[in-house]
Design a protein that fits this description.
By secondary structure, the protein is α/β, with parallel strands linked by helices. The strands form three sheets. A six-stranded parallel sheet has the order 1-10-7-4-2-3, with helices on both faces. β5 and β6 form a beta hairpin. The longest helix is centred in the N-terminal third of the chain and has 23 residues. The protein binds iron/sulfur cluster. Iron/sulfur cluster (SF4) binds next to α13.
């Protein structure tokens, strides 16, 4: 079980994704579109009030909750148990899957319907259920497209962002006997027909959890398609899976976080549906599952608790950081090799799966800070990326000895003004044989790894210190 999407390494992914012109155009359009909507919803929304004050409130709620996580998880599980539900705390993905497997076996279930859920991707739940012989169906449109095409999400909120309508039409024709056009309306009508039949046959419904409200014992799901309502009302058995950080103390806190989530994710005031489900065995209501299970996954999260990375667990998965990231814009979601992409993916993946697997990701950032500025709960993403880098270079990752030596040399050079000045003066002459039109595209030695992927700006003979000295004297830099 792993958050890894396949066995390729980061650089192979990047090479492959950089050649995918469609994907890169799709991402830049989607980023512009989603970011534009978010800006409109957070600056022009008079009734909402001051966006920065809402961010402060969101940050405060997340900080308070994570600092008292044991209390709120206990309260959540007691309230669910009191209402007739079952709660299972899973330390690992294997434990979570084993529990879900036992529930499905007890029900003799064959047909399972599911909502979109990052945490079930994280534990590879579909693979486990398929191995059991279950027919499992993703009911979110984007996830359904990926499921039938045997593909993985490339974005938290828009999982099939990397596919165009012609590709989807071809997949439908090949995999599910579709004979219509590539028009989104036609594709959607066809999908709805397939899903409706499956909803009626379902024995078990599986959902993720956007937020679980501790003081009432409620799982909430924020969606735009209505599929979560079907998954939680038609089958008699419901299993919800949540990362242990997804708890909120109260409905008032939920109000703040859902408001931040919807605006940050897609620029909506509120999503079309906010589905809230509690076990309610006593009152025997027709639309509550008669058998309710909540699986709360640690999965490596507790490694961040009480450390400098705890704030990464404040994340509400809105993807606002992904939508502004210049690196994601060029390499796309699959290049991260993790189900968690973009800046938060680069922070979270090494925490959950270790530096052995993900030590390149903290370096896949320009440290421009756009992600930190975009984050509705004020996670200092670029600072957490630097902390990862420090740890990796200090020895927790597999940094090569030559790289460490080079960084040490660079450190020594930049900490001595005279050595630095000499190096700056010598650089244009030393690199001249490799430079063309102001850049180096085939660098020597350590520069090679860089220039294999992109050009390196050739050192200029006009350096800042010289410019400043000339300017101060009233000289003209262009002379
Ligand atoms: S880190 Fe912040 S901006 Fe990124 S997905 Fe999480 S909450 Fe949203």
């Amino acid at each position: 079980m792993s958050i890894k999407i396949d066995d390729k390494n980061f650089y192979d992914h990047v090479d492959q994704e950089l050649k995918d012109t469609f994907m890169r155009n799709a991402i830049s359009n989607a980023q512009d579109n989603l970011r534009g909507k978010k800006i409109a919803a957070t600056t022009e929304d008079e009734p909402f009030g001051n966006w920065e004050e809402w961010r402060n409130a969101g940050e405060e709620i997340r900080r308070h909750t994570l600092e008292n996580l044991d209390y709120y998880l206990q309260q959540l599980s007691e309230n669910i148990a009191e209402r007739g539900g079952h709660v299972f705390f899973a330390a690992t993905a294997e434990e979570a899957n084993q529990y879900i497997k036992e529930v499905v076996e007890q029900k003799n279930a064959r047909n399972v319907v599911k909502t979109k859920s990052m945490v079930t991707e994280e534990i590879s739940l579909n693979e486990m259920l398929e191995d059991m012989g279950c027919d499992i169906l993703e009911t979110d449109l984007g996830e359904y497209i990926l499921q039938i095409d045997d593909d993985r999400p490339s974005h938290f909120v828009a999982p099939s962002l990397h596919k165009n309508k012609e590709q989807i039409r071809d997949t439908y024709r090949e995999k599910i006997a579709y004979d219509g056009t590539e028009k989104p309306e036609e594709l959607t009508v066809y999908t709805r027909k397939v899903l409706r039949e499956k909803f009626l046959q379902a024995d078990v419904g599986i959902t993720g959890c956007n937020f679980a409200v501790a003081d009432s014992g409620t799982v909430t799901l924020v969606t735009n398609e209505g599929n979560a309502n079907m998954v939680t009302t038609l089958p008699d058995t419901q299993i919800s899976v949540m990362g242990m950080e997804r708890v909120v103390p109260s409905w008032e806190d939920l109000d703040v976080l859902v408001s931040l989530l919807c605006r940050s994710a897609v620029g909506q005031h509120l999503s079309t549906y906010v589905t809230a489900v509690s076990p309610d065995v006593e009152s025997d209501t027709v639309d509550a599952p008669s058998d309710f299970h909540l699986v709360i996954l640690d999965g490596g999260r507790s490694r961040a608790l009480g450390t400098e990375f705890q704030e990464a667990l404040h994340c509400i998965r809105c993807a606002a950081c992904v939508n502004v990231c210049p690196v994601y814009r060029h390499i796309g979601g699959h290049a991260y090799g993790s189900i968690y992409q973009g800046p938060i993916g680069a922070v979270l993946s090494p925490i959950l799966a270790g530096y052995e697997e993900y030590q390149e990701l903290p370096f896949a950032s320009s440290l421009c800070g756009a992600c930190t500025e975009a984050c509705p709960v004020k996670i200092p993403l670029h600072e957490l990326l630097i902390r990862h880098r420090e740890r990796i270079v200090a020895g927790e990752g597999k940094t090569k000895a030559s790289e460490k030596l080079m960084m040490k040399g660079f450190g020594n050079m930049t900490s001595s003004a005279s050595v630095f000045q000499t190096a700056v003066k010598a650089a244009p002459t030393l690199t001249r044989p490799f430079a063309k039109d102001g850049s180096i595209s085939k660098g020597p030695g350590p520069l090679k790894a860089w220039t294999n992927k992109r050009d390196f700006p050739a050192p200029s003979k006009d350096n800042f210190r010289q410019w400043f000295a000339d300017h101060k004297r009233g000289g003209d830099i262009n002379e």
